[in-house]
Design a protein that fits this description.
Layout lengths: L5 H19 L5 H7 L2 H6 L5 E5 L2 H5 L7 E2 H4 L5 E6 L5 E5 L2 E5 L5 E3 L5 E8 L5 E5 L3 E2 H11 L6 E16 L12 H4 L5 E16 L10 E8 L5 E19 L1 E5 L4 H5 L12
Parallel strand pairs: 1-14
Antiparallel strand pairs: 1-7, 2-7, 3-4, 3-7, 4-5, 5-6, 8-13, 9-13, 10-11, 10-13, 11-12, 12-13
Bound molecules: zinc ion.
The site of zinc ion has 4 residues, from β12.
């Protein structure tokens, strides 16, 4: 039951507060409103060590496939990111402030500002730690390597991992139309698979401590975009030749819930998590 869970209650209060704040803006003189929306002013106040997370993972798992977050708003919250577009119309991969969309047909395009997002993790990336891996790696050995370097497993981390990949297997999403029949627990095992060989590109993503597991993906979650921006998706497996790893430590977490009927009415019946560690 949502009402029995204090964190949901607090989050809902935050959402309500934001809504109230938005409404109040209509009474503010027009000049002030325009000034508030200047990106330059927003940027001055931006917290670059903030992990921004939109929509609870279990809502996404349980068929909340339409979001109210726009790509334009996402760009004010970070410059790397991963997630999915509304109706599962493509995997979201954001690198250097550009939000890419890898659709079910395997094509990669740049998303439009008005496009909607259903789930996303983002931050403004600043490398706190960088290192090179010259040995061949796969997903498991990379996790082990990064685990050795992380200062603690109790913080949030963002990653930009660029390199040469002998091969890589990425997952996509099949676009859904309402009424949505299946949750991610069914859709992900049947997702479209994209494979590439001898490809250069960047994996972007995040590490979340185990305790985040009910609201977000615990452990590592990475998406890939090729240097030529023609191939991308959710990283499932790879064999790399050499990697340049950059890590950004984050100690603040902003959790924003969708203000939609679908979210308000969702039951968190289904559970699905990627492989942890
Ligand atoms: Zn993913």
């Amino acid at each position: 039951m949502i009402s029995k869970h204090p964190s949901f209650f607090i989050s809902s209060l935050c959402v309500l507060f934001l809504l109230t704040a938005c409404k109040d803006r209509s009474n503010v003189p027009e000049k002030q409103v325009v000034e508030e929306r200047q990106p330059a002013l927003e940027e001055k106040n931006v917290n670059r060590d903030l992990f921004y997370h939109y929509s609870i993972w279990y809502a996404f798992v349980n068929k909340v496939f339409e979001g109210d977050l726009t790509v334009a708003k996402l760009k004010t919250k970070g410059d790397i990111g991963l997630g999915s577009y509304t109706k599962l119309d493509g995997e979201l991969i954001m690198l250097d402030g550009v939000p890419y969309r890898a659709t079910e047909d395997g094509l990669v395009t740049v998303a439009k500002d008005e496009d909607k997002i259903v789930y996303v993790n983002t931050t403004f990336f600043d490398a706190d730690l960088t290192f090179k891996i010259t040995n061949p790696m796969n997903y498991d050995s990379l996790r082990v390597e990064i685990n050795k370097k992380l200062p603690t497993k109790n913080m949030f981390y963002g990653f930009k991992i660029h390199g040469m990949f002998k091969n890589i297997k990425c997952g996509g999403l099949n676009k859904q139309e309402p009424p949505f029949k299946e949750g991610l627990d069914v859709l992900i095992p049947n997702r479209p698979i994209f494979k590439a060989e001898a490809i250069e590109g960047t994996m972007v993503g995040f590490y979340c401590p185990e305790f985040i597991g009910d609201i977000n993906v615990a452990g590592y979650h990475l998406h890939f975009i090729s240097d030529d921006r023609t191939f991308g998706g959710h990283v499932m497996a790879f064999n790399s030749e050499s990697l340049d790893v950059s890590i950004d430590e984050m100690y603040e977490y902003q959790f924003v819930l969708p203000n939609t009927d679908a979210y308000r009415n969702v039951g968190f019946d289904k559970q699905f998590q990627y492989k942890k560690n």
